[in-house]
């Protein structure tokens, strides 16, 4: 149990260290103005998946109600 906790602690420490490094790809996209395209595409994908899940949920509720 102790070795598990130590390895978990080491994982969290390494994550915080790597989280403070600069991300060059994001800086490059932000400098060229392409970050907005990336955000827009991700937003469209998220909204379409959410709408799909809501429509599936409505269909399932309708089927459950009919039984």
Quick structural summary:
With 67 residues, the protein is an all-alpha fold. It is built from three helices and no strands. This is CcmD family protein.
Question: What are the main properties of this structure?
Answer:
0% strand, single chain, 67 residues, mainly alpha
Characterise the protein shown here:
By secondary structure, the chain is mainly alpha-helical. It is 88% helix and 0% strand.
How would the blueprint of this fold be written?
Elements: H1 2-19, H2 24-32, H3 35-66
Sheet with the most strands, sense and barrel status: none
Which residues form runs of ≥5 with pLDDT under 50? none
Instruction: Write down how many β-strands occur, each being a DSSP E stretch of 2 or more residues.
Output: 0
C-alpha geometry:
flat
- Helical/strand content category: mainly alpha
Considering DSSP H and I runs of 4 or more, what fraction of the residues is helical? over 70%
Strand content: under 5%
Task: Write down the secondary-structure element order.
Answer: HHH
Q: How many helical stretches?
A: 3
What's the mean pLDDT score? 84
CA-atom Rg in angstroms: 22 Å
Give the CA-CA distance, first to last residue.
49 Å
Keywords: Membrane, Signal, Transmembrane, Transmembrane helix
Organism: Sphingobacterium cellulitidis
Protein name: CcmD family protein
């Amino acid at each position: 149990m102790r070795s598990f906790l130590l390895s978990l602690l080491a994982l969290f420490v390494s994550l915080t260290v790597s989280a403070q490094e600069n991300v060059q790809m994001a800086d490059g996209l932000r400098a060229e103005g392409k970050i907005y395209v990336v955000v827009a595409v991700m937003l469209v994908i998220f909204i379409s998946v959410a709408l799909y899940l809501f429509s599936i949920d409505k269909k399932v509720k309708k089927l459950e109600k009919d039984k």
